[in-house]
Amino acid sequence: MSLDYSYALTPLLAWLLAGCSKFAINSVRARRLAFDLIGYGGMPSNHSAIVCSMAVLIALKEGIAHPAFGVAVTLAFIVLLDASSLRRQVGLHAEAINTLSAATPSKPLRERMGHSRSELLAGFLIGSLAAWLVWCWMPMYSAAG
């Protein structure tokens, strides 16, 4: 039995694809290389790309009836809810605090924290693409392929 590296490769590929996409989108919007905009928030969501890539890979390789798929979907929902609600609220609080403390010369808090639904959807699509690419590239390990 050989080792199946697809479960390690898939989230790494999803992170790389989402991160490069986010950097490119931020750079186009800012009309410069936007290294300072790397981080939380923005299009697409790295978090959703990573967790959704694993759920989709498990669905492709093991099927949706497999218990690991249920665990992966549960984790994905928790991460997506956190990114769209809690972290978004943290960003709104940071914006309010920065407005209140505009007179003081301190470093402002990062306001881009959470994600919109379109950013989460883009992350889901990138994660799904990453899972599909790995599944196609490593068919010898798939149950269906």
From TrEMBL:
Transmembrane portions of the chain: 6-25, 37-58, 64-83, 120-140
InterPro entries recorded: DUF212
Source superkingdom: Bacteria
Pfam family, one: DUF212
Record's keyword terms, sorted: Membrane, Transmembrane, Transmembrane helix
Protein name per Swiss-Prot or TrEMBL: Divergent PAP2 family protein
